Amino acid sequence: MPITLTVIALLLIGLVSAFSDDTKQTATFNASDSSKKDSLTSVNAFKKVYAVLQSPRCMNCHPKGDIPLQGDDNRLHAMFPKRGTDGKGILTMKCTNCHQTENTAGLKTPPGSPEWHLPPTDMKMVFQGRSAHELAKQLVDPKQNGNKDLTALIAHADDGLVKWAWSPGEGRTLPPISHTEFKEAWITWLTHGAYAPTK
User: By C-alpha distance, which of 96, 127, 89, 130 is closest to 111?
Assistant: First the structure.
């Protein structure tokens, strides 16, 4: 009898431990909130997302360094402005000195949108040079995405600067798919498990 009780106690401890470990693993980002987990659908949707995020309209503001890029060829910004702690420039070189709340009319003039900025220093959200696997992992990592959960990530598709990419001003190439298609792919990727493509 004492042996049986000991075995039962050990089994109960094991079960409690297993559930508690599982909770720790899903506490950071819980894409499994969706009942539609499907790795194939998720990865195929991310291929569309990735194509947009690698387009100049997105990558120019998500460089690997602290100087934004410009043009369809992703060259360093001509004025060499720096990111700054808040992503809005440093000292007298603030982004909003040239980038107003809307695009300036004409070719080769500064684009603009309210709250024009790069991601801040503590959350650089680099797209440049990231593989599809790396970028998918980064986007759902709360330590790298501004502590965004599934709901906040879905809402981010309608952020003003995100939507600006589809109305960037005269002479600038648009992302490869429409914003509606991007948003659909983004939500599909996230709600079907936020799977990363293989390395």
Answer: 96
